[in-house]
Amino acid sequence: MKIALDPFMHRHLSLEQLPSKVAELGYEWIELSLVVISLNGSKRRVSSQTA
């Protein structure tokens, strides 16, 4: 099993800074799924559906 970090909590970092932060926290993998932020501030994941 691979454990990945969801970078949403570190969204203040640039994409270039993110891999260093992930490694600093001890993770080897980054989850880069699309997250849509609605106007009310809640977040929901968007997944692709394959037929």
Descriptive report:
With 51 residues, this protein is an alpha+beta fold. The protein has one domain (4-45). It has one helix spanning 18-24, and strands at 4-5, 29-30, 35-37, 43-45. The protein has a two-stranded parallel ribbon with strand order 1-2. Strands 3-4 form a two-stranded antiparallel ribbon. The longest helix is centred in the middle third of the chain and has 7 residues, at 18-24. The radius of gyration is 13 Å and the shape is flat. The relative contact order is 0.22.
Mass-distribution shape: flat
Regions with pLDDT < 50 over 5+ consecutive residues? none
Class derived from helix and strand content: alpha+beta
Give the topology string: H per helix, E per strand: EHEEE
What does the main sheet amount to?
2 strands, parallel
How many β-strands, per DSSP?
Answer: 4
Q: What is this entry, summarized?
A:
The protein has 51 residues and is of the alpha+beta class. The chain has one domain (4-45). The chain has one helix at 18-24, and strands at 4-5, 29-30, 35-37, 43-45.
What features would you highlight for this structure?
two-stranded parallel ribbon; 14% helix; single chain; two-stranded antiparallel ribbon; flat; 20% strand; 51 residues; alpha+beta
Describe how the helices and strands are arranged.
Blueprint: E1 4-5, H1 18-24, E2 29-30, E3 35-37, E4 43-45
Parallel strand pairs: 1-2
Antiparallel strand pairs: 3-4
